[in-house]
Design brief:
With 450 residues, this protein is of the alpha/beta class. The chain has two domains: 352 residues, LCP protein (Aminopeptidase); 81 residues, Alpha-Beta Plaits, CATH 3.30.70.2390. The protein is 28% helix and 22% strand. It is built from 13 helices and 19 strands. A six-stranded mixed beta sheet has the order 11-6-1-2-3-12, with helices on both faces. Strand 4 and strand 5 form a beta hairpin. The protein is globular. The two termini are 42 Å apart.
Amino acid sequence: MKWLVVAVWAAFVVGGLGMGWRGLQNLSALERPRPNTVREPVAAPAPTPVAVPLPLTTKPPSSQLDSSSAPFEAAGPTDLQATPQPSSPAGRLTILLLGIDQRPDQAGAGGDPGRTDSMLLVSVEYDAHTASMVSIPRDSFVAIPGHGNDRVNAAYTFGEIDQRGSGPQLAKRTVAQVFGVPVDRYALVDIRSMEEVIDTFGGVWIDNPQRLVDTAYPTDNYRTITIDIPAGRQHMDGVTAVEYARTRHPDSDYGRQRRQQQVVLALRDQVMQLSVLPRLPQLLQQLLSLVRSDLTPVEIGRLTTLGPNLDRARDILTLPPNPQLTPSYTGPGGAAYIYVTPAFRSAVKTLIEQPRVAAERADIAVYNAGAPIGSGGRAADLLGRVGLSVTSVGNTQPQGSTRIEAGVGARETAVLVAKTLGVPASALVFDGDSSSLRILLGPDVRLPTG
């Protein structure tokens, strides 16, 4: 539920923040009382740096870590040995955005490090000119290197228990193992300060599809209040926007993930306004004091160059939260878990490694049209390894040769299919505007082995 670290990414990619990279090299922990009722935007006070806490000497309360077992196997490799993660190929930068769940009274030396209840994976593809974003459900049951199986939001906690400051690295390694993609950098923030970020940019415009009433919205003093956000397009200040993205009682965690992505993109739109851009230099110190990251000056420079040129509708891709891909379960003692299905892991891998293919969302069908028995299933397996989901496998009338029929809406997918199956480009046939794709495996097909 601590999601607003993504606002920092939004600020990076829209440009104008290149000179502020030095602020990322210092950790400023800002602990302020969180207003619960004030709705008007207020001027944010200047940040006051505090001393970096000493290494942890005690284990967090047991409420932070759950020893219950999920009713399914954890996602990720069974080998939990810590191994160096490879860097992304040239032209791609993948960043894990972490929103930390830590109340003000828990901060300080020996305190509870909290959990990262908001985790988003953002990948920027410079060559493809895209930015991709996917929410990682906080209750995802995964394999955490060196610590066994637990929810993904505990990876940061375990890392901080091991050694203060190592939580983000363990979170990066965990996510990389689960989805099979390199995770290059991280950015972490405590969301209590992010209300100020939104207010600093003048709030955000949100189109709320339905009224949201939460009679048990949590506060920092371990109590609850009632919030009521009406339906319709409206201008939200920092407090309201945080409540909008944080609440889950009116619907579910899937709804909350959708709202998180919605607010992130709305904040990006707000920063892009001409009335805001001239003020960015004066806002740098306040904004950058809120974030802790291992992004380098060169990387931030590239982000600020690319950001303003991204078209939101065409170049910024998201994977909508989907209960079918990440179903929820109740374990022993009523513990909540999310099953990270192979299909979800495949979809995330495709979004990161093949963003233009992911954007097509092609409907893929495989037919044996005279190929050796079992070729259809073999082809579906090969496509699954590169992150493509096959909707059906069957048989059809024998063909003289292998052919891939696709609408122009599945052009990028068709090219990837041909490459994966070892089919020549001459076998591609495009007709119509649909995003459907049919693979007819003829007697000439020679599927790759291994």
